Amino acid sequence: MDEHGSSETEGTFRLLVVPGATPAKWVRVWKERLPDVRLELVHAEVEDQARALHEGRADAALVRLPIDRAGLSAIPLYTETSVVIVPRDHLLTAAEEVTLADLAEELLVVPLDDTLGWRDAPGTRLDVEAPATTADAVALVAAGVGVLVAPQSLARLHHRRDVTYRPVPEAPTSSVALAWVEDRTTDLVEELVGIVRGRTVNSSRGRGAGAAAPATDGGSQRDTSGKGGASGKGGTPARGGAPARGGAPARGKASGKGGAPARGGASGKGAGKGGAARGKGRRGR
């Protein structure tokens, strides 16, 4: 582990994940491309995400925006719809979507780890001590105390049989981003950036790019057209192969129709017959 706490030299890359973030598809691609580097998931709360990166507890992180970007690089990945979490028998469950007017008469439960920051939300805030976590807020919703507006992934994460949720299209949304400390942009960080951006192995800027590059011989790519095969029309022939129509002939080989004769070789049609005739004349002398 280096002076910043990075674990890359030990064959492990640590990815911090905040509640609700879903890294599964990127973890799968990582394992396919970098099977020799273990991807370790580290969990932290949203309020601790930036500090965890600066302290070196992770090499990169799936964070919720906004985040203090001082010293950090961040790439937005996706934006979530917000939903209202209500008791399963609540009147709002009759609608497919909930409007701001629908929330005007509701008591809102807002936890201390709230990620939306919806200051002017309709309805009335719970006037008792705010629950510490979203999980605690969901428990209050289940008890019939009020309703909770949160990103959809958190509603799924804290799902219970006695609550459900409905989309609130007019509510603020929550975005998830990939972030890392700017001056610790390593090859493995670049590899992860390529994965989350959907780059192929060959277009990646990370460590996998060198491994995926084709083998070379003297700076030129090896011929993949078959042993001694001809190149395509107008292309350069493989070493020792016959040229394509209109291409330059290889040394020591007869050219195609209309091509210039190779050094020391016969030209096109008629060269063979002429050579044979001379040979017969010499034997008859």
Give a quick summary of the entry.
By secondary structure, the chain is of the alpha/beta class. It contains eight helices and twelve strands.
* End-to-end gap: 89 Å
Q: Give the ordered list of helices and strands.
A: EHEHEEEHEEHEHEEHHEEH
Radius of gyration: 34 Å
> Mean of the pLDDT scores?
80
- Which ranges are low-confidence, i.e. pLDDT below 50, for 5 or more consecutive residues? 210-285
List the total number of helices: 8
Helix content: 10-25%
Helices and strands: which structural class?
A: alpha/beta
Oligomer type: single chain
Major beta sheet, specifics?
A: 5 strands, mixed
- Enumerate the strands of the largest sheet in spatial order, edge to edge or round the barrel: 2-1-3-10-4
What characteristic shape results from the CA principal axes?
elongated
Strand content: 15-25%
Task: Give me the count of strands.
Answer: 12
Describe the protein's topology:
Elements: E1 12-17, H1 24-33, E2 38-43, H2 49-54, E3 60-64, E4 72-80, E5 82-87, H3 100-103, E6 107-108, E7 124-125, H4 134-142, E8 148-151, H5 152-157, E9 163-167, E10 174-181, H6 187-196, H7 207-212, E11 216-217, E12 220-221, H8 271-284
Characteristics:
disordered C terminus, 20% strand, 3-stranded antiparallel beta sheet, single chain, alpha/beta, 8 helices
Structure description:
The protein is elongated and about 55 Å long. A hairpin with a 2-residue loop joins β11 (216-217) and β12. The strands form 4 sheets. A 5-stranded mixed β-sheet has the order 2-1-3-10-4. It has 8 helices and 12 strands. The protein has 285 residues and is of the alpha/beta class.
